[in-house]
Amino acid sequence: xxxxxxxxxxxxxxxxxxxxxxxxxxxxxxxxxxxxxxxxxxxxxxxxxxxxxxxxxxxxxxxxxxxxxxxxxxxxxxxxxxxxxxxxxxxxxxxxxxxxxxxxxxxxxxxxxxxxxxxxxxxxxxxxxxxxxxxxxxxxxxxxxxxxxxxxxxxxxxxxxxxxxxxxxxxxxxxxxxxxxxxxxxxxxxxxxxxxxxxxxxxxxxxxxxxxxxxxxxxxxxxxxxxxxxxxxxxxxxxxxxxxxxxxxxxxxxxxxxxx
Length: 260
Ligand code: COA
What we know:
By secondary structure, the protein is an alpha/beta fold. The chain has helices spanning 30-45, 68-71, 76-95, 112-119, 146-154, 156-165, 171-177, 189-201, 205-217, 225-236, 240-250, and strands at residues 6-11, 14-19, 51-56, 61-63, 101-105, 108-110, 122-126, 130-132, 168-170, 182-184. It has two domains: 6-201, 2-enoyl-CoA Hydratase, Chain A, domain 1, CATH 3.90.226.10; 205-250. Helix content is 47%, strand content 17%. The chain is globular. The two termini are 27 Å apart. 38% of the residues are buried. The model has no long low-confidence stretch (mean pLDDT 97). Coenzyme A (COA) binds at residues 24-25, 27, 64-69, 108, 110-112, 134-135, 138.
């Protein structure tokens, strides 16, 4: 696939998607959101991809937000549409992918950038990373799920403070808040993401898909997460992966999951 604003490559089961507008600190314009949608969709549907890593190009930014130049003159209707379309194409879309998605935050993750990282299944960061939702400093609120996912990850009080002050936190503070799972040097960020991806890939992709659905169910209004868990748990018993996993355990060997 030929992209203008992103790079995507697949090696050894890992698809690495890099947002590639370093001169604009990888800000998310409309075309970039569309291309990301296509790249995530392709990777999720490819049998070659077991884990997706998303990062930003350059040394400065993961993503410095939605592209402010694109919406500065929007009216109420256009503003609402911008948020709805973005959530549908990218943020909700990524959260509900059946392939694990790791955000490797390599610098500024602000506004839509932090919202994208939060839509991923989990996050790691390099020590130079800075995270925040600065939207109220522009007279707007987070519109790509930030008001919902930030309190889920860091708690209501911390989310309120971060949103109200429009301030940034550094990587270590994000680690303390539980916003990122690991912090490492800039040089080792992708290697760490790949190492974690390697651990994920040893397991049943079918079971992981069910686990993502069950965990996400806890955060959906009107959905009983326990019921979702029971359904997904039961489904595992009909899979080849379950037969292989349990047989391998009993035969005292490593499982070789067919992914079915
Ligand atoms: N939208 C559009 N362009 C952006 C952008 C965004 N969210 N963030 C950065 N850019 C552009 C800048 O306009 C600049 O472009 P130019 O060189 O053509 O003028 C380029 O990226 C470099 O940014 P610059 O501001 O010069 O870098 P800096 O190191 O001085 O500051 C930041 C870095 C991240 C603090 C600053 O760019 C910033 O505050 N960005 C906006 C963050 C934000 O409010 N995001 C939420 C949007 S809803």
